[in-house]
Amino acid sequence: MTRGHSTEPSGLAQAALLDDPEFPRGLVQTALQALLEAELTAHLGAARYERTEERRGYRNGTKPRTLTTRAGRIELRVPQDRDGTFSPELLGRYQRNEQALVLALMEMYLQGVSTRKVAAITEQLCGTSFSKRQVSALTSRLDAELAAWRERPLPAAYPSTPAWGWLPATNMGGWTGGW
Questions:
Q1: pLDDT tens figures, 57-103
Q2: Rounded to a whole number, what is the distance in angstroms from the first to the last CA of the chain?
């Protein structure tokens, strides 16, 4: 008995994932590239080769950019405009890593994972590792933000001493059984 092939979109995606492990990375790359092109089109006010009165500039090629994501390393062609005023909102200036990946690195650090282990974990997750120096740079930025939060002034609604004052610690002799 032969097994039937699914023609549903979810079945096709599942088959593609099983057949080609590079499929998710290609899918993410295609989506990000389309978003970058759409962002430049909105910035210029005209699509490629479109002649309109609302045009605010002209395209001027692309520049290569590598982005590290959970799906792996993605090579993007970031479009440019002739005046050099276009900066994609999708990618921050000098951003080379997906924000969710950076937040995961910071969370691992907060949970007490060493920088060496964080580098090894990221290599397992996305195929590329962050150096100990990169992890330390990210966590030092996080440490500065946490220190500022800890040292912030509290409003008067939070008094430094409780309303009942300080109670002396008194042992009332609860449990008397030994080990």
A1: 999 999 998 887 777 788 999 999 999 899 888 776 656 666 666 67
A2: 68
Whole-angstrom distance, CA of residue 103 vs CA of residue 95: 14
The beta strand positions in the chain, using DSSP E, are 59-69, 72-81
User: Same structural domain for residues 88 and 49?
Assistant: yes
The span from the CA of 2 to the CA of 36, in Å, is 44
Tokens of 115: 């920088």
Residue 45's domain comprises 14-96
Q: Alpha-carbon distance 28 to 69, whole Å?
A: 9
Instruction: Write down the pTM of the prediction.
Output: 0.51
For the segment 2-53, what is each residue's pLDDT rounded down to a tens digit?
Answer: 454 445 556 656 665 566 667 777 777 887 888 888 889 989 999 888 898 9
**What's the number of domains the chain is made of?**
2
Residue 101's identity, in one-letter code, is L
